[in-house]
Description:
alpha/beta
Amino acid sequence: MIILGIESSCDDTSAAVVRDETLLSNALAGQKVHELWGGVVPELASRAHQLNITPTVHTALVDAGITPQEVDAIAFTRGPGLMGSLLVGVSFAKGFAAALGKPIVEVNHLHGHIFAQFLRLPDKPYDPPQFPFLCLLVSGGHTQIVLVRSTQDLEIIGSTIDDAAGEAFDKCAKVMGLPYPGGPHIDRLAVAGDPLRFKFARPEVGRLDFSFSGLKTSFLYTVRDEVAKNPHFIAENQADLAASLQHTIVAILLTRLERAVADTGVTEISIGGGVSANGGLRSALVALGEKRGWKVHLPERFLTTDNAAMIAVAGLFKAQRGEYCSMEIAPQTRF
Ligand code: KG4
Ligand code: ZN
């Protein structure tokens, strides 16, 4: 089965083609414009999607060596995400499908992140998580622990009550004057820093739930107080600030994951979402997995942030069950 996937939930326009689980192409158009504003500006995002969607889909088909007629179904992100951004992808998918006489499949963006590791990649061993598994889903908009029993039986057993892990990275990076999105910058700076130099809050809000707003505030206050004493504090302590922040976020994430394993008995572990690209999180999870005897599955880095390949494979699972949707379907910003 050949699936064309389309992703436009936030600020990346992406289109991808899979033949069964095999990834044939994954085209991506990022949006630099938001860097200027220190965060995603929804109206600018939807305009950029409109410019990018047709050439991105074209590139995905050409790279895959597939003609539009060879596509069996078109899978698209229905949500969650920004309404204007989602509308572009959903409308394109419907229009393209109508023109070709092909069925459409709606995909939950978060399921895309969870099933990204089920893609078969050229020259890579195929080792997707075995059911049931726990997925620590950490993106810019969501932080969840999901118990995945099958491709259609997913249960969210923990989630954030305020900011997402990615937001915590991005907001603290902003306090340090780093560009948006700050997560990758913190990751890079943390390598040379002392993770135990600064202590930040680790709010407890429930056994498997997360809260990051207190951490963000404690980071902000620490920086503000130190800058009052020394205006060069941030520049002189960038690496230690980044390493200590990353260490705290990783500790918050992994303590909940350990509890989830204790509660469910499931030791097959995967991670997904933009923050799962983080070097500190990946190495800490691997080390913890070795210590506890878990089987840890790390996604390839290009599959961690938003991409259409993951939407195509999540859509494939639905298409294989005949779960197509009607042309009446509308985007959904929240789930
Ligand atoms: O999954 P994603 O691309 O978009 C959403 O669905 O939200 O995640 C984007 C988030 C941003 O907050 C970004 O800062 C974070 O992922 N991120 C990282 C890293 N790469 C991306 N955070 C920490 N370390 C990274 N290497
Ligand atoms: Zn995402």
